UniProtKB/TrEMBL annotation:
UniProt-listed PANTHER family: PROLYL 4-HYDROXYLASE ALPHA SUBUNIT, PROLYL 4-HYDROXYLASE SUBUNIT ALPHA-2
Entry annotated with the keyword Protein biosynthesis: no
Organism per entry: Bactrocera dorsalis
Lineage: Eukaryota, Metazoa, Ecdysozoa, Arthropoda, Hexapoda
Record's protein name: procollagen-proline 4-dioxygenase
Predominant place of localization: endoplasmic reticulum
Cofactor(s) recorded in Swiss-Prot or TrEMBL: L-ascorbate
Function: Catalyzes the post-translational formation of 4-hydroxyproline in -Xaa-Pro-Gly- sequences in collagens and other proteins.
Enzyme class: oxidoreductase
Pfam families: 2OG-FeII_Oxy_3, P4Ha_N, TPR_P4H
Stored InterPro entries: Oxoglu/Fe-dep_dioxygenase_dom, P4H_N, P4HA-like, Pro_4_hyd_alph, Pro_4_hyd_alph_FE2OG_OXY, TPR-like_helical_dom_sf, TPR_P4H
Amino acid sequence: MQFFLNKFFFKKSKEMRYQFPLFLCTFMVICCFCNNATGNSDEYFSSVAGLEKLLMVEYVVLDELQNYIDSVQKHIDSLQSEVDAIRSDHQAAADDVDGYLSNPVNAYRLIKRLQSDWHTFEDVIRADTSRADFLSSMETNRQAFDFPTKEDVIGSAVALVRLQDTYKLEVAELASGILNGIKYGPSMSWQDCFLLGHHLYEIQDFNHTVPWLKQSMQMLKSQDSTKDAVTLDFMETVVAYHREMGDFETALELTNYILSFDATREHMSATKYYLERMVSDGIKAGLMHEMIPQAGDYHLSNDFKRYEQVCRGELQLIAAEERPLRCRYDSNNAPFRLLQPYKVEELYLNPRVVQIHDVLTTDNTDAVKQLAKTRMSRSQVRNLDGSAASSANYRISKSAWFHYEESEEMQKMLRHMGDLSGLNMDYAEHLQVANYGIGGHYEPHFDFFTDNCTYNLSDGNRIATGIFYLSDVEEGGGTAFPYLRLVVKPQQGSVLLWYNLHRSEEPDYRTRHAACPVLKGSKWIGNIWVRVRNQDRARPCGLLPDHEVSLKYKHLV
């Protein structure tokens, strides 16, 4: 802790707004490393598969640091033995200084040490190459590996906040490594919480900055060192954060804490007077109150709130009107499935949403994931203005596209999709394999195309979607249908299937769906989208229009 405070402590300027404090610049260079030499970012926060690389990188640099420590320790041990010998002489002299110095041998040794030995110590320290060797090795490692970038740090901070909001997690529990009441790992340190709060401050997410800074200070107060001057100085900096944001109550509480240990801090007494006046007058000022929500912000809409409620399991499934939902064995008239029918679980009747279990084996899913890991890149979304697809904050994952001929397992997936849906697979899109990272999600969207200019009209729109779950997910990560009040838990080897279009080939707006944030685990899926071309025999139109039932959902977004 003293390393953090002593080396990186800073005095906050009067104009702190949106500035990156000097000590944190230095801290981020060391703790988050530097950008790699090419400036490329692998966006490690966007998939768990990418994070696996970082374990190997950290192992390498940890080994380098251990080598440096071992080298320095040998050097320190050698110097310590010399210091101990000199201190032994000083201890002998303490009892009788005159008697000690009157001894010519002692006098000689004292003179010799100061004239000769101390120069030798300086030369030894000057010649020590441990530091230079370590820095040189680290520079080599930066050239050889892709280190996390600042974007990764910000991305992971935003992911934690996303999980906090979606699943209504308490900051204290999240900091303790507790997710939905289960402790999965070690707790965060007060420094971790502080830096998380700082990153949120930097992106102007002040409402989330406040609780993380408060958590940091609560944890710091529990340590004995909170009485020393350096720690109290650091707490003054946090007071400045809360004051700038307009959180005067927390700033006043922390100010009183500081003064309880050091009442001589006159400037803090003045700060206390100012904060007491702001609190008593009920003045609403500061960055939190200056940030006005943008009109039309989707994250403040009822549609987004409904999505979060479904992810939390707070909305109950609307009872089926036609008949009760059921599970059954079904071959779907596929000849190869007469003796080994599928295990079909009905999740919704109209629109029909089913989950088919035990379609793929563990070996099948592992083979697909292993092949995908070599080709993953940040998932992108279509732009309605016709411009090239790009990454977006509302879709955090990595993905790769495959021809089905690339592996036997992928050919099986295509065949299963055809047997389960009864559709013609000649115009199925390429297989997309995706992996979701820290808090990875995909906000509510339609799979069908909502504009004619972004897809090949000859192939038609996306008539059906099949999501092959390639892994289990411990917490979160479900597929949510907000309008149906349905959330589907990923189960390795199963397939989630639904139709995006009515039989009239008009969009079914009830199928709006989303990928809930992954709270714990690594979510792998394989997506198969089937186009409407040549499906007239497999799924013919009805005699009457059937799309009116979903039109009211079109305008809920």
